[in-house]
Amino acid sequence: SSPHLCSYADRADKHKNPAARALLQLMVKKKTNLSVSVDVTRKNDFLAIIDAVGPYVCLIKKTHIDVLEDYDQTVVEELQALSKKHEFLIFEDRKFADIGNTVALQYSGGIYKIANWAHITNAHAVPGPSIVTGLASVGLPLERGLILLAEMSSKGALTTGTYTEEAVRMARARRDFVIGFIAQHRMEGIGARETDDLTDEDFLILSPGVGLDAKGDAMGQQYRTPAVVVTECGCDVIIVGRGIFGTGRDIDVKEVQKQAQRYQTAGWEAYESRLSK
Ligand code: 5IU
């Protein structure tokens, strides 16, 4: 049966990629499928939010380390310490998009050295399979996992039809490293050819564009509830940003914590009702 009808625990036992397995195990242990997207520009806010939401999340999605205006090496050190303290994995939403050779350099080097600390990162499928080859050359030895962007949540996104199908084919060809998708639906079997081996195909579906209150923003973002995303569409991880830390410039840590707890509960209840369907 489709992986989303199995428990996260069963899927953890079967998954071949260490990052995917670790993520699923954390989800079970902490009873959470919530990933918080920490899109703030100041280091102190960034770390304060992560410390506050840490107990409620399986994954911290850093929207682009390059958004931080006061980045220095200590950010990564503190992030790693928080990841151990609260037991969550780190997802750098870098959205690589170049040829294999270039992305290998971007992933391993530069100022950020993403591969050293991000358990999971992501890439666009636009360049074709070479982008996966390039990233895998760096990430596989470090037991990392890659997420491909198969569908985007923004209005008018071009990631539809054959584009999505080809992205899934690229993932299918590298199931050792590609652990799933940023998408709005399940992807198993999409674009499959008769000769493809679909045994144990299990892609983690991470879905952004999740909100309990707002329907969208002024720049084309579209929100769905955890019940729609997880129960109806079968996605595995909900990614929530402003629904948790708000839209104001000042961060209210108590409120952030309260919202994280609220989304954790909503996401987990949606998962439990999916299993009991
Ligand atoms: N994000 C999306 N939609 C997408 C992709 C990424 O919203 O299709 I790919 C990112 C952008 C932002 C987060 O970092 O997910 C959603 O934040 P809000 O919950 O604040 O809208």
TrEMBL record:
Residue ranges annotated for the Orotidine 5'-phosphate decarboxylase domain, each copy included: 33-256
Reactions listed under catalytic activity: orotidine 5'-phosphate + H(+) = UMP + CO2
Catalytic residues as annotated in Swiss-Prot or TrEMBL: D93, K95, D98
GO annotation terms (biological process): 'de novo' pyrimidine nucleobase biosynthetic process; 'de novo' UMP biosynthetic process
Pathway info: Pyrimidine metabolism; UMP biosynthesis via de novo pathway; UMP from orotate: step 2/2
A GO MF label: orotidine-5'-phosphate decarboxylase activity
Listed InterPro entries: Aldolase_TIM, OMPdecase, OMPdecase_AS, OMPdeCOase_dom, RibuloseP-bd_barrel
EC number(s) on file: 4.1.1.23
Keywords, in A-Z order: Decarboxylase, Lyase, Pyrimidine biosynthesis
Alphabetized Pfam families for the sequence: OMPdecase
Positions contributing to substrate binding: D39, K62, S153, Q221, G241, R242
Keyword Calcium appears in the UniProt entry: no
Membership in a protein family: Belongs to the OMP decarboxylase family.
NCBIfam families xref list: pyrF
Protein name, entry field: Orotidine 5'-phosphate decarboxylase
Organism: Paxillus rubicundulus Ve08.2h10
